[in-house]
């Protein structure tokens, strides 16, 4: 079977996973999907995907397996048991692990794949709802070069660029580095808007200056303008998912003996925002937490 027609099994149909599976199906790949909440998988039938009843069924019929779920525990839950991924006899399979998880879990899953005779690529992505729908993600990969080259045409149906960071786990580590930047940009913008408000300045003025500054003007700040000014926290990337990644960052840095004082402070703000009930909201909801923390 040629690469363009290679069968793909896709697990995880959230904000990112559903449009990604759709891109692959519309490109001509036979796509089979699975989601832990099976009712959420029904929408994939609209672009011709088959809905598998369990992970084993999905893995048994695909050449490439893509996982795009919340965390490592979700992956483990789909690996084990009589209906789990590892119960299939399928050997000619490449697992592309695209969830943003921790580095040790990534290596654990690569070892499990190797024992099955599978190839493995860790490949988290940068980008959010807008980028995934436009197939403009940046794919951060870790694994053997020959595995990457085999997967590259498939990956470029999902994004505009592929960055190879190194061996297994390097793609995941690079994703944590990139999300560290996003986390700090978020809290910096939220603090700037909160300080402006405390000073009696319309926070719209912050964005006005940003747009006029070649050094500061960027797509991310423009995307988050509506969240701050209109209090619209419909999630493009939820607070709870970003906090999960921030916890991975500080844990990984701890394993390396590296202090991350600013990121640790960001984590504290996000933990407080989570305790206030903003977990499902967009991560920019930290702005509300900072506003509430003002001493009158």
Offer a concise description of the structure.
This protein has 296 residues and is of the alpha/beta class. 48% of the residues lie in helices and 13% in strands.
What does this structure look like?
It is a single chain. By secondary structure, the chain is an alpha/beta fold. The chain has two domains: 3-166, NAD(P)-binding Rossmann-like Domain (Rossmann fold); 173-292, N-(1-d-carboxylethyl)-l-norvaline Dehydrogenase, domain 2. Helix content is 48%, strand content 13%. It has helices at residues 17-26, 55-60, 72-79, 103-116, 129-133, 145-155, 170-198, 204-212, 219-230, 239-255, 261-275, 286-292; strands at residues 8-11, 31-34, 50-51, 64-67, 94-97, 119-122, 125-126, 137-142, 159-166. Strands 3-2-1-4-5-6 form a six-stranded parallel β-sheet, sandwiched between helices. A three-stranded mixed β-sheet has the order 7-8-9. Helix 4 links the parallel strand 5 (94-97) and strand 6. The longest helix has 29 residues, at 170-198. It is globular, with a radius of gyration of 20 Å.
Helix content: 40-55%
How large, in whole angstroms, is the Cα Rg?
20 Å
Strand content is 5-15%
Give the SSE order as H and E letters: EHEEHEHEHEEHEHEHHHHHH
Secondary structure tally, helices: 12
CATH architecture of the largest domain: 3-Layer(aba) Sandwich
Main β-sheet, in a few words? 6 strands, parallel
Instruction: Give the strand line-up of the largest sheet.
Output: 3-2-1-4-5-6
CATH topology of the largest domain: Rossmann fold
CATH superfamily of the largest domain: NAD(P)-binding Rossmann-like Domain
Compute the separation of the termini in Å.
68 Å
The secondary structure category is alpha/beta
Shape call: globular
How confident is the prediction overall: mean pLDDT? 94
Q: Oligomerization state of this entry?
A: single chain
The poorly predicted ranges are none
Number of strands: 9
Per CATH, the class of the largest domain reads Alpha Beta
| Number of structural units classed as domains | 2
